[in-house]
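question for whoever is on the cluster today: can someone run the full assembly for these? two chains, 856 residues total. i dont have access anymore since they changed the login thing
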Amino acid sequence: MSSPLRIGIAGLGTVGCGTLGIFRHQPELLASRCGRVIEIAGISAKNKNKKRDSDIKGLPWFDTPLAMIDKVDVIVELIGGDGGMARQLVETALRNGKSVVTANKALIAHHGIELARLAEKRNVVLAFEAAVAGGIPIIKALRDGLAANRFRRVIGILNGTCNYILTSMREYHTSFGEALKEAQKLGYAEAEPSFDVDGIDTAHKLAILAGLAYGTAPAIDKVYVEGIRRISLRDMEFAAELGYTIKLLGIAAETEQGILQRVHPCMVAANSPLGAVHGVYNGILAEGDSVGTVFFEGRGAGAGPTASSVVADIMDIARGVAYKPFTLPVENLASLSFSGMENLCCSYYLRLSVTDRPGVLAEVTGILKDEQISLRSFLQHSHQPGETVQIVLTTHETKESAMKKAMTAIGKLESVKEPPHMIRIENL
Amino acid sequence: MSSPLRIGIAGLGTVGCGTLGIFRHQPELLASRCGRVIEIAGISAKNKNKKRDSDIKGLPWFDTPLAMIDKVDVIVELIGGDGGMARQLVETALRNGKSVVTANKALIAHHGIELARLAEKRNVVLAFEAAVAGGIPIIKALRDGLAANRFRRVIGILNGTCNYILTSMREYHTSFGEALKEAQKLGYAEAEPSFDVDGIDTAHKLAILAGLAYGTAPAIDKVYVEGIRRISLRDMEFAAELGYTIKLLGIAAETEQGILQRVHPCMVAANSPLGAVHGVYNGILAEGDSVGTVFFEGRGAGAGPTASSVVADIMDIARGVAYKPFTLPVENLASLSFSGMENLCCSYYLRLSVTDRPGVLAEVTGILKDEQISLRSFLQHSHQPGETVQIVLTTHETKESAMKKAMTAIGKLESVKEPPHMIRIENL
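^ ran it for u. tokens below:
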């Protein structure tokens, strides 16, 4: 057996304690699979005396993680955040020729390329399987298992908080607000939930996946982002009636106008693999030109699943397996052009609150016709005369720019009582 | 860029032509992802002049694949079969210090360990991602992405032919025989289908997965195997009524009595991930102690998907990534004890054809009670008096040995007109 691999773990929150737990629980299994012992040569966190799930007695404590760098072969960064100590630690470790394993999506989405360049220079590893989709080994799959494919599309449910909220809304007919409160009570959502529910977290993860799939630097500023706050129970119920469910998707696709990256709520067939990803689970569907459609599902967060990916990266280093962080050397990454949402072509769901009077539908469909938008289905429930009526239209594939124009025109109609509510439909 | 990696492809059937196709279609993409060119330095097949999907003009032809060994860095064995030329070629290549990529599950299930030993001795790669589940990178996932986990259970729909037949039976209400004929017509089943429908192919793949999951040599002789010929349309319809669907599963699990490997038709919840794997698709569910449940789905056969995995393995070699074939060095593989079916504990579906007369059910339930088998549900449709009646029982978890005893006793009852028909239920 080779000499032990010494690791230093910085950050002892949920994932840090989960990681410690795996090493404590089955050191022999890991050692036999790696052909060498993995030794925890240092731990560090803000507060030594915080009550933790994991016992840290007997492990070498460092008041600052930077002081561990000299003592270890690998820094495991589980602090989080795209700047501050996390960034300083990772940079310093790489500059000093130490490999880094991190679960930090914000850091990789914003600074992954600079960091990859540092890792390359020193010929060390920078690995971040745990940054996307928790325990699902999707980064490794895009990088090696599916490496022979050109990807048409990569679609993911990448945020467990949002998926928990949307699943609750659908199953228990609760409003967004109620479902959010419940998620907060259960620890699935933060007190300040905007990072999750406004789609930012999904955007970080999507940018990383797209970078890997298309051999380009993560372009977080080229992701269209829309969260789930505007999804109403009414939309959820109409979706069910139409055979759909609503999911927050991150989608990266090759289009004629370049790579289009977008994060927004989507209607997907309820009986499709992505439509059946419930609760805090994550799911990713990749479409490759050779492999066809491949689908992955698993827990997207939590101590065990995320630690599973962190430890897998550490084990690769112990086994001497070294991929480039973004598969290709940084200098070989393509500078691709990115497309904007105006070029998106998809099907749409449109819900209108209208006064029930003759001619409303004629006006609406006239506007759609002017924009060459063709209808796929139409839904209106019976109601009392004079009431405000909800009408729901779905369209065939049409351009986002045309849809936007139509929505503006429809919103101006006197009989339309609220701004039209649109949700994109993703055909899987 | 490093010097080109020279490969020799032996066998130019579906997968061989698919593999050629990927190299012809996007050589630049592959070269950029590997940092070097992959050069087809030789091809060989039984018949040079056979009509093929792929154009082989301009590629160096060898009448025997053995003659390619000297000219290449990697032998790609796509001949098939657990002996004959396939085995001779792989052995000779490894002995001569050449890496091998193969899609040959029979060869790996039967002789994988000897071959791994040869590969280790010469420090070359033996890779077989394409041997299990076509385009799904499940071997890599068990080996690296999920390497931090101890696996409770690995369950797979691993044979596209069987899954196509079972899906047809369920969707189109056809008999096994009709569905098989249809599958043969479409090229999804062989003229001699027993390798697929009797579960042998699934057993090969399961033994490989279990070897990887449990760090042991594939033990193909320790797999209980039962195919799908006995599944009737009637069972399929009762399954649907009970919320189940019938799938041919390969299951490896850690039990108190050792590793239990089994291949047989199972009822699984129709709305579960495995229950929703339709047609020629494959699906694998792995349960790890840290990651929880992870699920993979994709095409399990065909030119593109299988070639996707073959080429991924070749790309790993081009990139200098080298895992041990079964993750651990051969000498470190555990010799585990295996359990037999008598120790299996699961739920059961039992269908009985009985004469409709008073007391039948009392007799049957009396026998179940004697074996301490507790009922979960009971189903009997209305019928004409005096007719033979189908009654269906499902049980709570019980021992296979008890179930077998009960079935023998039930089969002897005068009112029971056919041998009782049992299908195991897998709770997911």
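summary bc i know u wont read the tokens: The two ends of chain A are 48 Å apart (CA to CA). The first helix of chain A runs from residue 14 to 25.
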